Amino acid sequence: MEKVLEKIRRNERMSAMLKILSDTPGKMYTLSHFCALFGAAKSTLSEDIDALRQTVEAFDLGRLETVTGAAGGVVYRPEISREAARDYIEGLSRELSGTERVLPGDFLYYSDILSTPETVNRMGRILATEYAATRPDFVLTMETKGIPVAFATANALGIPLVIARHTSKVYEGSAVNINYVSGSGNIETMSLSRRAVRENQKALIVDDFLRGGGTARGMVELMREFHVEVTGMAFVMAAVEPIKKKVSGEKSLMTLEVLEGENPEAVVRPAAWLS
Protein backbone atom coordinates (compact mmCIF):
# COMPACT_ATOMS: atom_id res chain seq x y z
CA MET A 1 0.00 0.00 0.00
CA GLU A 2 2.85 2.37 0.88
CA LYS A 3 4.42 1.84 -2.54
CA VAL A 4 1.13 2.69 -4.22
CA LEU A 5 0.76 5.85 -2.14
CA GLU A 6 4.22 7.00 -3.15
CA LYS A 7 3.14 7.02 -6.79
CA ILE A 8 0.14 9.29 -6.29
CA ARG A 9 0.61 12.45 -8.33
CA ARG A 10 -0.52 15.85 -7.12
CA ASN A 11 -3.43 16.14 -9.53
CA GLU A 12 -4.69 12.70 -8.47
CA ARG A 13 -4.37 13.62 -4.80
CA MET A 14 -6.21 16.90 -5.27
CA SER A 15 -8.98 15.26 -7.32
CA ALA A 16 -9.49 12.64 -4.62
CA MET A 17 -9.55 15.29 -1.87
CA LEU A 18 -12.14 17.39 -3.66
CA LYS A 19 -14.30 14.32 -4.28
CA ILE A 20 -14.14 13.31 -0.61
CA LEU A 21 -14.91 16.82 0.62
CA SER A 22 -17.74 17.51 -1.85
CA ASP A 23 -19.40 14.17 -1.08
CA THR A 24 -19.67 15.09 2.61
CA PRO A 25 -20.51 18.82 2.90
CA GLY A 26 -20.17 20.26 6.36
CA LYS A 27 -17.91 17.47 7.61
CA MET A 28 -14.55 18.50 9.01
CA TYR A 29 -11.51 16.54 7.82
CA THR A 30 -8.21 16.95 9.63
CA LEU A 31 -4.96 17.25 7.73
CA SER A 32 -3.81 14.14 9.60
CA HIS A 33 -6.63 12.20 7.94
CA PHE A 34 -5.40 13.14 4.48
CA CYS A 35 -1.78 12.62 5.51
CA ALA A 36 -2.57 9.03 6.40
CA LEU A 37 -4.66 8.55 3.28
CA PHE A 38 -2.17 9.92 0.76
CA GLY A 39 1.14 9.47 2.58
CA ALA A 40 1.97 13.16 2.19
CA ALA A 41 3.29 15.81 4.58
CA LYS A 42 0.96 18.39 6.15
CA SER A 43 2.80 21.22 4.43
CA THR A 44 2.21 19.57 1.06
CA LEU A 45 -1.47 19.05 1.76
CA SER A 46 -1.85 22.65 2.94
CA GLU A 47 -0.57 23.81 -0.44
CA ASP A 48 -2.99 21.44 -2.19
CA ILE A 49 -5.93 22.79 -0.18
CA ASP A 50 -4.97 26.39 -0.96
CA ALA A 51 -4.95 25.57 -4.66
CA LEU A 52 -8.27 23.75 -4.39
CA ARG A 53 -9.81 26.69 -2.54
CA GLN A 54 -8.90 29.08 -5.37
CA THR A 55 -10.30 26.70 -8.00
CA VAL A 56 -13.56 26.09 -6.14
CA GLU A 57 -14.17 29.81 -5.64
CA ALA A 58 -13.16 30.74 -9.19
CA PHE A 59 -15.77 28.42 -10.72
CA ASP A 60 -18.46 29.13 -8.10
CA LEU A 61 -18.39 25.52 -6.90
CA GLY A 62 -18.68 26.42 -3.24
CA ARG A 63 -16.14 27.25 -0.58
CA LEU A 64 -13.37 25.41 1.27
CA GLU A 65 -13.15 26.56 4.85
CA THR A 66 -10.08 25.83 6.97
CA VAL A 67 -10.00 25.85 10.75
CA THR A 68 -6.71 26.10 12.61
CA GLY A 69 -5.83 24.41 15.86
CA ALA A 70 -5.67 20.87 17.20
CA ALA A 71 -9.31 20.17 16.31
CA GLY A 72 -9.12 22.04 13.02
CA GLY A 73 -9.05 20.90 9.43
CA VAL A 74 -10.87 21.61 6.19
CA VAL A 75 -14.59 21.51 5.38
CA TYR A 76 -16.48 21.97 2.12
CA ARG A 77 -19.44 24.37 1.93
CA PRO A 78 -21.46 24.00 -1.32
CA GLU A 79 -22.30 27.68 -1.56
CA ILE A 80 -23.52 29.42 -4.68
CA SER A 81 -23.32 33.09 -5.59
CA ARG A 82 -26.48 35.18 -5.49
CA GLU A 83 -26.07 36.03 -9.19
CA ALA A 84 -25.79 32.37 -10.21
CA ALA A 85 -28.72 31.48 -7.97
CA ARG A 86 -30.95 34.10 -9.54
CA ASP A 87 -29.95 33.11 -13.08
CA TYR A 88 -30.86 29.51 -12.36
CA ILE A 89 -34.20 30.33 -10.71
CA GLU A 90 -35.06 32.69 -13.59
CA GLY A 91 -34.64 29.84 -16.05
CA LEU A 92 -36.74 27.55 -13.87
CA SER A 93 -39.44 30.21 -13.57
CA ARG A 94 -39.70 30.52 -17.33
CA GLU A 95 -40.05 26.76 -17.63
CA LEU A 96 -42.89 26.68 -15.10
CA SER A 97 -44.80 29.67 -16.46
CA GLY A 98 -47.58 29.43 -19.00
CA THR A 99 -50.90 27.62 -19.33
CA GLU A 100 -49.83 23.98 -19.61
CA ARG A 101 -49.03 23.37 -15.94
CA VAL A 102 -52.02 25.08 -14.29
CA LEU A 103 -54.24 22.68 -12.32
CA PRO A 104 -57.77 23.18 -10.93
CA GLY A 105 -57.76 25.30 -7.77
CA ASP A 106 -54.93 27.50 -9.05
CA PHE A 107 -52.33 24.86 -8.30
CA LEU A 108 -49.26 24.27 -10.44
CA TYR A 109 -47.91 20.95 -11.60
CA TYR A 110 -44.19 20.77 -10.92
CA SER A 111 -43.71 17.29 -9.48
CA ASP A 112 -41.39 16.55 -12.39
CA ILE A 113 -39.15 19.41 -11.27
CA LEU A 114 -39.12 18.13 -7.69
CA SER A 115 -38.15 14.68 -8.98
CA THR A 116 -35.10 15.84 -10.93
CA PRO A 117 -31.91 15.36 -8.84
CA GLU A 118 -29.93 18.10 -10.58
CA THR A 119 -32.71 20.62 -10.00
CA VAL A 120 -33.39 19.82 -6.36
CA ASN A 121 -29.67 19.69 -5.59
CA ARG A 122 -29.23 23.16 -7.07
CA MET A 123 -32.19 24.48 -5.07
CA GLY A 124 -30.77 22.84 -1.97
CA ARG A 125 -27.45 24.63 -2.50
CA ILE A 126 -29.23 27.97 -2.84
CA LEU A 127 -31.21 27.49 0.38
CA ALA A 128 -28.20 26.13 2.23
CA THR A 129 -26.16 29.17 1.22
CA GLU A 130 -28.88 31.50 2.47
CA TYR A 131 -29.36 29.80 5.84
CA ALA A 132 -25.91 28.42 6.65
CA ALA A 133 -25.17 31.37 8.96
CA THR A 134 -28.14 30.44 11.18
CA ARG A 135 -26.38 27.12 11.95
CA PRO A 136 -29.44 24.84 12.11
CA ASP A 137 -29.05 21.39 13.65
CA PHE A 138 -31.50 19.75 11.27
CA VAL A 139 -33.92 20.44 8.43
CA LEU A 140 -37.62 19.83 9.09
CA THR A 141 -40.20 19.14 6.40
CA MET A 142 -43.71 17.76 6.12
CA GLU A 143 -44.36 14.64 4.08
CA THR A 144 -44.27 14.20 1.14
CA LYS A 145 -43.62 16.57 -1.79
CA GLY A 146 -41.15 18.73 0.12
CA ILE A 147 -38.86 15.82 1.00
CA PRO A 148 -36.53 15.98 -2.07
CA VAL A 149 -35.66 19.67 -1.67
CA ALA A 150 -35.49 19.39 2.11
CA PHE A 151 -33.11 16.46 1.77
CA ALA A 152 -30.94 18.35 -0.74
CA THR A 153 -30.79 21.33 1.64
CA ALA A 154 -29.90 19.12 4.59
CA ASN A 155 -27.21 17.39 2.54
CA ALA A 156 -25.70 20.72 1.47
CA LEU A 157 -25.61 21.83 5.10
CA GLY A 158 -24.28 18.49 6.31
CA ILE A 159 -27.11 18.03 8.83
CA PRO A 160 -29.94 15.48 9.28
CA LEU A 161 -33.39 15.63 7.72
CA VAL A 162 -36.41 15.25 10.01
CA ILE A 163 -39.83 14.47 8.52
CA ALA A 164 -43.12 15.29 10.23
CA ARG A 165 -45.98 12.99 9.28
CA HIS A 166 -49.76 13.12 9.20
CA THR A 167 -49.97 10.01 11.39
CA SER A 168 -47.49 8.47 13.80
CA LYS A 169 -45.76 5.23 12.80
CA VAL A 170 -45.30 2.34 15.24
CA TYR A 171 -41.70 1.82 14.12
CA GLU A 172 -40.80 5.37 15.23
CA GLY A 173 -41.83 4.88 18.87
CA SER A 174 -43.82 7.36 20.91
CA ALA A 175 -44.65 10.61 19.17
CA VAL A 176 -45.88 14.14 19.74
CA ASN A 177 -49.10 14.90 17.87
CA ILE A 178 -50.62 18.34 17.31
CA ASN A 179 -53.65 19.59 15.43
CA TYR A 180 -53.30 22.51 13.02
CA VAL A 181 -55.43 24.40 10.52
CA SER A 182 -54.31 23.68 6.96
CA GLY A 183 -54.36 26.22 4.16
CA SER A 184 -57.74 24.89 3.05
CA GLY A 185 -59.17 25.50 6.52
CA ASN A 186 -59.36 21.84 7.55
CA ILE A 187 -58.17 20.57 10.91
CA GLU A 188 -55.31 18.14 10.34
CA THR A 189 -52.80 16.27 12.48
CA MET A 190 -49.03 16.53 12.48
CA SER A 191 -46.87 13.92 14.19
CA LEU A 192 -43.18 13.64 15.05
CA SER A 193 -41.28 10.95 16.95
CA ARG A 194 -40.00 12.05 20.36
CA ARG A 195 -36.58 10.66 19.44
CA ALA A 196 -36.28 12.68 16.24
CA VAL A 197 -35.02 15.91 17.84
CA ARG A 198 -33.66 17.17 21.15
CA GLU A 199 -34.47 20.20 23.25
CA ASN A 200 -32.63 23.45 22.51
CA GLN A 201 -31.71 22.43 18.98
CA LYS A 202 -32.26 24.68 15.97
CA ALA A 203 -34.48 23.78 13.02
CA LEU A 204 -34.66 25.04 9.45
CA ILE A 205 -38.10 24.41 7.93
CA VAL A 206 -38.05 23.56 4.22
CA ASP A 207 -41.14 22.66 2.19
CA ASP A 208 -42.33 22.68 -1.39
CA PHE A 209 -45.24 25.15 -1.41
CA LEU A 210 -46.60 27.99 0.70
CA ARG A 211 -50.12 29.29 0.20
CA GLY A 212 -51.77 30.45 3.41
CA GLY A 213 -49.05 29.17 5.72
CA GLY A 214 -51.19 26.79 7.77
CA THR A 215 -48.86 23.81 7.47
CA ALA A 216 -45.78 25.98 8.06
CA ARG A 217 -47.35 27.40 11.19
CA GLY A 218 -48.14 23.87 12.31
CA MET A 219 -44.46 22.92 11.97
CA VAL A 220 -43.46 25.98 14.00
CA GLU A 221 -45.91 24.98 16.74
CA LEU A 222 -44.63 21.41 16.61
CA MET A 223 -41.08 22.64 17.20
CA ARG A 224 -42.35 24.71 20.11
CA GLU A 225 -43.59 21.48 21.71
CA PHE A 226 -40.03 20.14 21.49
CA HIS A 227 -38.50 23.43 22.76
CA VAL A 228 -36.65 23.78 19.44
CA GLU A 229 -35.85 27.16 17.89
CA VAL A 230 -36.87 27.70 14.26
CA THR A 231 -34.05 29.62 12.57
CA GLY A 232 -35.77 30.01 9.21
CA MET A 233 -38.51 28.87 6.83
CA ALA A 234 -37.83 28.26 3.16
CA PHE A 235 -40.06 27.10 0.32
CA VAL A 236 -39.65 26.21 -3.32
CA MET A 237 -42.66 28.31 -4.27
CA ALA A 238 -45.10 30.70 -2.58
CA ALA A 239 -48.48 31.82 -3.88
CA VAL A 240 -48.90 35.56 -4.26
CA GLU A 241 -52.40 35.27 -2.78
CA PRO A 242 -53.24 35.51 0.02
CA ILE A 243 -50.81 38.32 0.69
CA LYS A 244 -50.99 37.86 4.45
CA LYS A 245 -49.70 34.45 5.50
CA LYS A 246 -50.02 32.67 8.85
CA VAL A 247 -46.24 32.84 9.21
CA SER A 248 -43.72 35.62 8.73
CA GLY A 249 -40.05 35.84 7.83
CA GLU A 250 -40.28 33.02 5.31
CA LYS A 251 -38.41 32.93 2.00
CA SER A 252 -39.32 31.15 -1.21
CA LEU A 253 -37.30 30.60 -4.35
CA MET A 254 -40.20 31.52 -6.63
CA THR A 255 -43.61 33.17 -6.45
CA LEU A 256 -46.74 31.99 -8.23
CA GLU A 257 -49.61 34.05 -9.58
CA VAL A 258 -52.39 32.48 -11.65
CA LEU A 259 -54.11 34.82 -14.11
CA GLU A 260 -57.73 33.79 -14.53
CA GLY A 261 -59.32 33.45 -17.97
CA GLU A 262 -60.48 30.90 -20.45
CA ASN A 263 -57.02 29.35 -20.20
CA PRO A 264 -55.59 30.22 -16.76
CA GLU A 265 -51.96 31.25 -17.00
CA ALA A 266 -49.28 30.70 -14.39
CA VAL A 267 -46.86 33.56 -13.86
CA VAL A 268 -43.82 32.30 -11.97
CA ARG A 269 -41.12 34.75 -10.91
CA PRO A 270 -37.89 34.51 -8.87
CA ALA A 271 -38.41 35.74 -5.31
CA ALA A 272 -37.43 39.35 -4.67
CA TRP A 273 -34.72 38.45 -2.13
CA LEU A 274 -32.70 36.79 -4.91
CA SER A 275 -32.21 40.16 -6.60
Task: Please describe what this structure looks like.
- The chain has 275 residues and is α/β, with parallel strands linked by helices.
- It folds into two domains: 2-77, Arc Repressor Mutant, subunit A (Orthogonal Bundle), CATH 1.10.10; 82-274, Rossmann fold (3-Layer(aba) Sandwich).
- It is 35% helix and 26% strand.
- It has helices spanning 2-6, 10-23, 31-38, 42-58, 82-96, 117-131, 147-157, 214-225; strands at 63-67, 73-77, 102-103, 107-108, 138-142, 161-164, 175-181, 187-193, 202-210, 229-239, 251-259, 265-270.
- A six-stranded mixed beta sheet has the order 6-5-9-10-11-12, sandwiched between helices. Strands 1-2 form a two-stranded antiparallel sheet.
- The chain is globular.
Secondary structure: elements and pairs:
Blueprint: H1 2-6, H2 10-23, H3 31-38, H4 42-58, E1 63-67, E2 73-77, H5 82-96, E3 102-103, E4 107-108, H6 117-131, E5 138-142, H7 147-157, E6 161-164, E7 175-181, E8 187-193, E9 202-210, H8 214-225, E10 229-239, E11 251-259, E12 265-270
Parallel strand pairs: 5-6, 5-9, 9-10, 10-11
Antiparallel strand pairs: 1-2, 3-4, 7-8, 11-12
Helix pairs in contact: 6-7
Short description:
Helix content is 35%, strand content 26%. With 275 residues, the protein is an alpha/beta fold. The protein folds into two domains: 2-77, Orthogonal Bundle (Arc Repressor Mutant, subunit A), CATH 1.10.10; 82-274, Rossmann fold, CATH 3.40.50.2020.
